[in-house]
Amino acid sequence: xxxxxxxxxxxxxGYRLLLTGVAAATILLAFLSLGxxxxxxxxxxxxxxxxxxxxGLRILFGVRLPRIIVAVVAxxxxxxxxxxxxxxxxxxxxxxxxxxxxxxxSFGAALAxxxxxxxxxPVWGLAFLFGLLSVFMVHLLAGNVRGNQVVSLLxxxxxxxxxxxxxxxxxxxxxxPMEQLPAIVFWLMGGLHRATxxxxxxxxxxxxxxxxALLALGWKVNILSLGDEEALSLGINVKVLRTVLIGLGTLxxxxxxxxxxxxxxxxxxxxxxxxLLVGANHQRSLAMSxxxxxxxxxxxxxxxxxxxxxxIPVGILTALFGAPTFAYLLIQGPxxxxxxxxxxxx
Amino acid sequence: MVLAAEALTxxxxxxxxxxxxxxxxxxxxxxxxxxxxxxxxxxxxxxxLGFIKPRVGQILINGHNISRLSCRExxxxxxxxxxxxxxxxxxxxxxxVMMGRNPHLNGKCREEDLLAVExxxxxxxxxxxxxxxxxxxxxxxxxxxxxxxxLAQEAAFLLLDEPTSHLDYRNQQQVMSVIKAMTRQxxxxxxxxxxxxxxxxxxxxxxxxxxxxVLAAGPPREVLSAENLSELYxxxxxxxxxxxxxxxxxxx
Amino acid sequence: MKxxxxxxxxxxxxxxxxxxxxxCSPGESPGxxxxxxxxxxxxxxxxxxxxxxERVIAAYQPATxxxxxxxxxxxxxxxxxxxxxxxxxxxxHPAIAQLPGVGSKKGLNMEEIAAAxxxxxxxxxxxxxxxxxxxxxxxGIPSVIIKPESPELLQESILLLGDVLGEEEQAADLIAYYExxxxxxxxxxxxxxxxxxPRVFLAGPDGVLSTCSGDxxxxxxxxxxxxKDVAEELSGGWNNVSLExxxxxxxxxxxxxxxxxxxxxxxxxxxxxxxxxxxxxxxxVYRFPSxxxxxxxxxxxxxxxxxxxxxKLYPASFADxxxxxxxxxxxxxxxxxxFTELGGQLDGxx
Lengths: 346, 252, 350
What we know:
The structure holds 3 protein chains of 3 kinds.
Chain A: H1 9-33, H2 43-48, H3 55-88, H4 101-115, H5 123-143, H6 149-174, H7 180-188, H8 197-216, H9 218-224, H10 228-233, H11 238-260, H12 266-278, H13 282-306, H14 314-335
Helix pairs in contact in A: 1-13, 3-8, 3-11, 3-12, 3-13, 4-5, 4-6, 4-7, 4-11, 5-6, 5-11, 8-11, 8-13, 9-13, 12-13, 12-14, 13-14
Chain B: E1 2-12, E2 15-26, E3 30-34, H1 41-48, E4 56-61, E5 64-65, H2 71-77, E6 78-81, H3 93-99, H4 111-124, H5 139-152, E7 157-161, H6 169-184, E8 188-193, H7 196-202, E9 205-210, E10 213-218, H8 220-223, H9 226-233, E11 237-242, E12 245-250
Helix pairs in contact in B: 3-5, 4-5, 5-6
Chain C: H1 2-24, E1 36-40, E2 46-50, E3 56-58, H2 61-69, E4 76-78, H3 87-92, E5 103-104, E6 107-108, H4 110-116, E7 120-123, H5 129-138, E8 143-145, H6 151-165, H7 168-189, E9 199-204, E10 207-211, H8 217-224, E11 228-229, E12 239-240, H9 243-249, E13 253-256, H10 265-270, H11 278-281, E14 285-287, H12 302-313, H13 323-335
Parallel strand pairs in C: 3-4, 3-7, 7-8, 9-11, 9-13, 13-14
Antiparallel strand pairs in C: 1-2, 5-6, 9-10, 10-12
C-alpha cells in the first residue's frame, strides 16, 4: 500500500525554531536584567568591569542575580504546572493553585510568622510543608468520593482551599497588628526580593529535575486529557499517572510559593499564550509554557523592582498584566476563524 | 485469540446490571449486541475493557484473567471507540491517531509507529485530514478518527459503544463498512448497536441483552426473529425481506 | 583546543559559584579599627556603626519623625515612601521632596538604599526586620531597628537614635521635656481613682465604627492623659465595633483622629444614632490635633497630644494650660520654628 511520507519536516523544524527563539529571548532578557535596577550599575558598567570597590559586585551577586534566577525558574515552573493542570483537569481555568497549594502555603507562612515569638520556624519551610499537606488532604478527600475522579479532585481542592483560607483569616486576626500582620499581608502579595542564595539553590534543586520529568511525561498528558476511560483503554494507568503528575506539580508549586510568595496569573495565562503559538500537544505546550513563563515573570519582576523607589509586590503586577491579557485571549479565541483557536475546544 | 466473559455478574449497589452473562468472541468476526436502554450493553463493554470489577465471574483473554494484566498489556489486546467523547484540546488528527500507539510506545516514536499511523489513516480514508484539528471535523469524520486510532493500536479486538448514534444515514453505512472491512483483516469487533437493521446487514453474530441477561445469541438471521425482537424491545416488531435481504420494521 | 572551549562553561560556573559564596558571607567590616562603635538596638541586636554618622536613611515614617525631632534631618539621604509628600516635613526641610522614598513596612528597595550609600538605616520593627537587616549587612550597610510602640519604648527610641545620630544633647532635652510634662499631668490626675476617670472612646480610621485596642499606642495616650479607654480589653490593632457597642459603652468623651473617616466632630454630634451617648449629649466630641500631621502617632509630638487630651478630659484641672503656647514652645525648641509659624492649628483638619 502507498505510504505517504510521515511527518512534514517543516512542521517539526518550525516548532523547534520557535521554541529555541523564545528560550533564547528569555536568556537574553536574563542577561540584560543584570544591568537593570535602581542602583546605578548598568550593563555597560558591567561589561567594562566598572564594579566600584565591591559595592557594585555585592549588588550584582547579592541582589540582582538571585532574583533573576528565581524569576526565570519560578515563572517557568508555575507556567509549566499551569499547563499541566489544565491538561489533567481538562479545564482552561485551572491554575497551579487549583488544588489549594497556594492556600496551604499561605497558611503555613502565616503560621510561622504568628508563632515566631514562641517558636522560631522558617517561613519558607512551613509554607512548603503546608503546601504539600493541602494537596495531600485533597487527595485523601477525593479518594473517598465515588464518581468522576477529576470532578472529585476539583471539588476537594475548592474545599481544602476554603478551609485554609478561613484558617489564614483567623491567623491574620490573631496576629500582632504592628509587626506580624504586615509581614503576613506582604508575604502573600508575592515578592522575589526575599530569596536568599540557599533558597535559590534549593529551588533549582527541586525545579530543574521536576520540569525535566514533566517534559518527559508530556505525551502521556495528551492521552490523560481525553478522559479517564479513553485513557485507560489506550493503556494509561490513569490513577497512578494522575497521582504522580499532581504530586510533581504540587512539589514544584510549593517550592516556588515558599520562596516567592503567592504569584497569581502566570500559571493561568502563559499556557494559553503558549498553546496559541505551538498548538495543543502537551509535549510542545509544556516546553513553550516553561520558557515563556520564565521570560514573563522576569519581565514583570524587572518592573516590580524598578518602577518606583519602593518594591512593588510582584503578585500585583502579574495580576495587572495577566487579567487584561487573559481577557484579550478570551475575546480573540472563539472569534478566530478557521485554524487553531487558543487551544481549548472549538 | 479469544476474548471471553464467564458468568459475569455486575452489581450497582443492590441492583444487578448484568447477571450471569457468558460470551466467547473470536477474532475476524463481527459481534453485535442489541438491547433496550438500560439492558446493560455499555456495562458489558466497560467490564470487558476492565473498567469495572465484576462481583462474580471473570473476563479472560486466551484463558488469562484480565485483572492480572496491566493497562498497557490490556490495551494491546483491546481497543475502544467511545460512545461519547468530549474533546477539550484541538489535537490534530495525526496526533489523535498517534495516541493509539501508546501501548506500544517506549519513549520515542519509532519508524514502525509512524508507519502504523499512516496505515491507519489511509485505511479509513483520512490521509488528507491528517493535520486538521479533529474537533472541527463532522460527526462521521470524527468517528473515523477514533477508528483510525483503534487501528493504530493494532489490538486484536475492537469494542464500540453505539458507534453510529450521532451519524447521518450515509455516514452510518460508511462507518459500518469500515468496521466490517476490519473484521475481514482479522480484528474481532464487538459493537453495541441500537438498530437491528445494522446488525442484520453487517454482523456475523448477534447477542440480545435484556435486563442484564442474554436472551439469545447466534447468527443474526436466526436470532433476530420477530418473536425475539418483540420480546427484546417490548413492542410489536416484524421482519420482512426485500430482494432476499431481511429488514426490520415496527408492527403497524 | 576543543577541550579548552568545552571547559569554559565549567570555569564560568565555578567563578559564578565562588563569587556567589563570597557574596553570601557577611559584608566587609566598614573601615579600619577605632573608627567604629557599637550600639544595641531595640530588637536586641548589637550593631557596629561608624563613629560619626553623616548619612541616614529612615525606612518608615515614625523614624523620619524622630530624626526631625532630634534635629538631624540634614543628614537624611533617604526616607520612607510617604514622607517626601508630607507638608510638615516639607515646611521644615524643603529638600526632603527630592529624597528617594526607599520603602515602608511593605518592603525595602535594596538597590535604592545602596545607591544612597547611607552610614546607617533606621528600620521598623517587624517579623521581617532581622532578615532585612541581614540583607543590608550583606551590602555592607548597618541598620538599627527601633520599636516606639509605647511611651516608654518611644523614650528608648529617642535615646538610641540620639546616640546613633550624634544628637545626644537634643535627645536628652526631648526626654527631659517628656518627663516634665508627664510629671505635670500625673501630679494633677494621678490621684484620681480609676472609676472616676472620664471614659474615652477613640474613633479609629473608620470613624466611630472602629477603635483602637489595648495594645495600640493610642491606648497608652489615653491612659497617660488620665482617661479610661472603653475599648482597652480589645486586642489586635484597630478593631471594628458596632454602633450598639459604642452606645453600650456610653463614653463620656469621643475623640476622633485626623485620619478618621468620617471624623468631623460636628457630624458625630449631629448623628442621631449617637444621641444617646453622654459624650454627644454633653457635646464633648473632639478631634485629635493637628493639621500638621497626627499627634497620636508613636513619635515625639505625641506628648503634646497627651497634654491636649488631658486638658479636654479635665478642663478645670488644666485651666492654666495654654496649648497653643506649649505647642509653639515645643516646635521652636525641637524643630526650629513655632507651631503657629508653620501654620499649625489645634482644631484644624489636616
